[in-house]
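Human:
If only I could read backbone structure tokens as easily as an amino acid sequence. I am handing you a single protein, as its sequence and its fold in token form. I hope you can help me see how the letters and the tokens relate. Thank you; the sequence and its tokens follow:
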Amino acid sequence: MRDVWFRSHHVFVVMHLETRRLLLAVTTGAPNAAWLAQQLRNLTPFGEGPKFLLRDHDAKFATVFDAVARGAGIRVVRTPIRAPKANSYVERLIGTLRRECTDHILVLGEAHLQQVLDEYRAFYNDGRPHQGIGQRRPSRLTEPARGSRMAPGAISARSVLGGLHYDYRVAA
């Protein structure tokens, strides 16, 4: 994506497939193998991480990235070449980030984009219902899916990203 001064910014996202939870959305102006490896280190403290990491064949995912993954006990699985459906969940997430967030905001720079991504990540995980997981939120996936009837009471709305989205909750 580009900011108001037409500088290019790249966003690295990590998603937990089972819960649809957006674990990481971080931006940089110049991604490289060392930066990506550091992001993976930050995401897997003390060598704790998922069993598998699905990634594409981008040259930025160098041997150092794979070494960090192996050190955390993660098996790296590469998607087939020219098969975008093999990574469809993350491709859909990237499209959602664009359609629901960055397409509607004039980004001033890298720090501003990171603030926007952090606020949207919290909304995506805690406030936005996901159709693929029964209209539940990723942070509350263990709760049963709700029907169309809501408990009586007042509804409160919290503005997200300056009113771009709203997080509606039943007031206590």
